[in-house]
Specification:
three-stranded antiparallel β-sheet; FAD/NAD(P)-binding domain; four-stranded parallel β-sheet; 4 domains; binds flavin-adenine dinucleotide; 11 helices
């Protein structure tokens, strides 16, 4: 009957069984069916009613296989190309970053030569090395003037982190930047005197300065002439006229204040744990009072509470019951001064320090 293909047995079942393990071993090279086909005894007679059709089918089949492998290889190649370029880009970026970083370190250690002061230029005197003065100095083109800086502090202090120094969370050196360090990176040389300005004479156009440090030389007060003067001496601590504040409390404005507070806290804690200490005395020693519910007061009270929770409680479990922090604020709401900055901060302060008018 036309169209019927006489099917010949491919191989005996036993031969196929023998070939299977070998086929598995050579899986990477060829498929078992191929091996079987190879091992098949040569057909004596092949009767194909439609040989052309079969041939074309085989060709089509094999072509289809070739195309799909090629496509797969192309996709693989594209994937590898993307990976290769990503790797190259990362590699080059890392090297460029390293070079830039090294260059910056080198430049910070080896700044360019500075121009010497020029008598023909005007003299600009800057008082203070706080936020105001340092912001000006960092932006100032010192080539245009002869710049002189006068301040009793030869470093800039990053005050927002000062409360963290009171408990040792941050080391004070981390928030101090020597003034001379950034001054030597200016294009023209800047003169710095560690001294306090005691008087300004506008008529004579000069200021009087005094070396107020512990070590004084033969000359410790003199005058500095100026053409232009910038006054950035900040503000003094306010006591609001309350008697005893200066004598009996500690301020928090300078590094020395933070160090004194830190020493006082630890002294109170150690004295409270002294042998046979009276319970009432322990309570008194471990009661810390912070006056002022502004940003500094709230931050410091928070630092104190964190110090107690995270360190003191673990080191000395005995003091857990007696350690208290009280925040005193004259206005009705704790954190009322924070409100000037952000309402969310004030709300957070309220939650952290519940109001108790009697305290
Ligand atoms: C603990 C703390 C936390 C703070 N946190 C924040 C905050 O998070 N955000 C914020 O905006 N503000 C904060 N502040 C406030 C901020 O620090 C001040 O507003 C800012 O320092 C004021 O800058 P200033 O340049 O006017 O004065 P200061 O920074 O106080 O600088 C004054 C400079 O003048 C010098 N000087 C003093 N007397 C003389 C003199 N006679 N002759 C020459 N030099 C003199 C001083 O040595 C000092 O270098 C904080 C303040 C403190 C104390």
């Amino acid at each position: 009957m036309a169209g019927v293909v006489a099917m010949k047995p491919l191989a005996s079942a036993s031969l196929a069984r023998q070939l299977q393990p070998a086929a598995r071993r050579t899986f990477a090279i060829s498929r078992p069916s191929c091996l079987i086909a190879k091992a098949r005894p040569a057909p004596r007679t092949v009767t194909l009613s439609t040989p052309v059709l079969r041939q074309s089918f085989r060709r089509a089949y094999s072509e289809r296989g070739t195309v799909s492998v090629e496509t797969q290889q192309k996709v693989k190649k594209r994937g590898f190309r993307v990976l290769r370029w990503t790797w190259r880009f990362t590699y080059v970026s890392a090297i460029a970053g390293l070079v830039y970083f090294s260059y910056n370190i080198y430049m910070s250690r080896h700044p360019n030569e500075q121009q010497d002061p020029d008598p023909k230029k005007k003299t600009l005197v800057v008082l203070g090395t706080g936020w105001g003065s340092v912001s000006l100095l960092k932006k100032l083109d010192t080539e245009n003037y002869n710049v002189v800086v006068v301040s009793p502090r030869n470093y800039f202090l990053f005050t927002p982190l000062l409360p963290s120094c009171t408990t040792g969370t941050i080391e004070h050196r981390s928030i101090m930047e020597p003034v001379r360090n950034f001054l030597r990176h200016k294009k023209a040389a800047v003169t710095f005197y560690e001294a306090e300005c005691t008087k300004i004479d506008y008529e004579k156009r000069c200021i009087y300065i005094n070396d107020d440090s512990e070590i004084k030389g033969a000359v410790h007060s003199t005058e500095v002439p100026f053409d232009m003067l910038v006054v950035g001496v900040g503000a003094e601590n306010a006591t609001f006229g309350i008697p005893g504040v200066r004598e009996h409390s500690l301020f928090l404005k300078e590094v020395a204040d933070a160090q004194a507070i830190r020493k006082r806290i630890m002294d109170c804690v150690e004295t409270a744990t002294f042998k046979d200490q009276e319970p009432e005395e322990v309570k008194r020693l471990l009661h810390m009072v912070v006056v002022g519910g502004g940003p500094t007061g709230v931050e410091f009270a928070g630092e104190l509470q964190d110090f107690f929770q995270q360190d003191l409680k673990k080191w000395i479990p005995d003091i857990t019951e007696n350690f208290h922090v009280t925040l005193v604020e004259a206005l009705p709401n704790v954190g009322s001064l924070i409100t000037k900055f952000d309402q969310a901060l004030a709300d957070n302060a309220h939650r952290s320090f519940p109001c108790s008018p009697s305290n």
